[in-house]
Write a structure and sequence with these properties.
This protein has 427 residues and is an alpha/beta fold. The protein has two domains: 103 residues, Roll (Urease, subunit C, domain 1); 307 residues, TIM Barrel. The chain is 30% helix and 22% strand. A hairpin with a 2-residue loop joins strand 17 and strand 18. It binds N-carbamoyl-L-aspartate and zinc ion (ZN) (2 copies). It holds the Pfam family DHOase. Keywords: Hydrolase, Metal-binding, Pyrimidine biosynthesis, Zinc. One of its GO terms (molecular function) is zinc ion binding. Its EC number is 3.5.2.3.
Length: 427
Amino acid sequence: MKILIQKGRILNPSDQTDEVGDIYMEDGVIKEKGGTITPEETPDKVISAEGCYVMPGLIDLHVHLRDPGLTHKEDVLTGARAAARGGFTTILAMPNTKPVIDCADRVEYVHNKARELAPVHVLQIGAVTKQQKGEELADIEGMIQAGIPAISEDGKSVMNMKLYREAMEIAAKHDIPVFAHCEDQNMVNGGCVNEDEHSRELGLPGITNSVEDVIVARDIVLAKETGARLHLCHCSTKDSVRMIQLAKEENLPVTGEVCPHHFTLTSDDMVPGDTNYKMNPPLRTKEDKDALLKGLKEDIFDVISTDHAPHTREEKQKTMTEAPFGIVGLETAVALTVTELVDKGVITPMQMAEKMSYNPARIIGSDRGRLEVGSPADITIIDPEAEYVIDSMSFLSKGKNTPFDGRKVKGLVKATICDGKVVYQQD
Ligand SMILES: NC(=O)N[C@@H](CC(=O)O)C(=O)O
Ligand SMILES: [Zn+2]
Ligand SMILES: [Zn+2]
């Protein structure tokens, strides 16, 4: 397969080049880049990228594929198709499945299924403890042998610090990152939305910032002691930004991610009773959101990830206290990032490429996330000027649970190329 992309705005974070030109790829590898390219042989496909960003294929460090066991919500194939439509060429799957992915053969199950069916790269993350019960360590070294890029207890925090420290020591020894969901299990106390005037008005149990902040602090302390690379998932509070900034000032190996819903919405936007505004961590206050925006602008946050968390309509039709936490994100992340961050001047298109591709790649030790001659042809083409209305019924994900249905946005994925093959093209 030979593909020629013409006249795109090529954004390459690895050498910080930002220039209009062509890219030519053959057999899954970038062969030529820049200027006007006239291939010796006729390409199988020519894609016009005039007015579009051409970025290294997007990498989402935080996706719930629900496979095995919860495939009524999503499976490897539907999740990977949604990813391709969203511009992602690599996604990392969280292990809070049924059963939990806590040993090598379950990692292999997902990797084999993905290799056979998925249009994009799927990397399975391993759990920290057996069945995510927080009592005994999972077979972390066995899973590392099977190719996990990271360990995570996402969905909860490992509350036993002695056990967690042991896990971090193993992660440090093998140089894989620990992806931390920060939530004190005792302090959350049945909360379902942010603790503020809205939770009080609606009579809903609230989640304070401290539920997240105490674990962020704890985890940074443990990373400092063990030398483990710590990646803080779905940061939502203003103090998490300050703590990551402090950790970075000390040159600790700490990185952080923000999800589009947390930089787009606050608890003021909640529609009473609409469980599509229920996710963990919850939508916080304007003060928190402004701190997240500043953290993104100033590169305190390295990553934008989706925390794509599909659930069925039935589950989401329950009450605010009963419905599960989580919203889908793979098919709205690019538009929300362009609309809320790039268009408003919070981050540059280059920072978008860094936070959605280059930095995630570096965190997992991958050589993707760059547009260089000789690198794998994972490429995302985005029209930043295209305006449209988000329609959840068009999602390829099984999950339609989004608060962004009907929202007017800018920024459309025109094509996604994975290993030199067009895996999605907008018609
Ligand atoms: N974020 C969520 O609200 N839900 C996630 C779990 C998680 O990411 O903590 C899920 O698995 O549904
Ligand atoms: Zn989480
Ligand atoms: Zn998650």
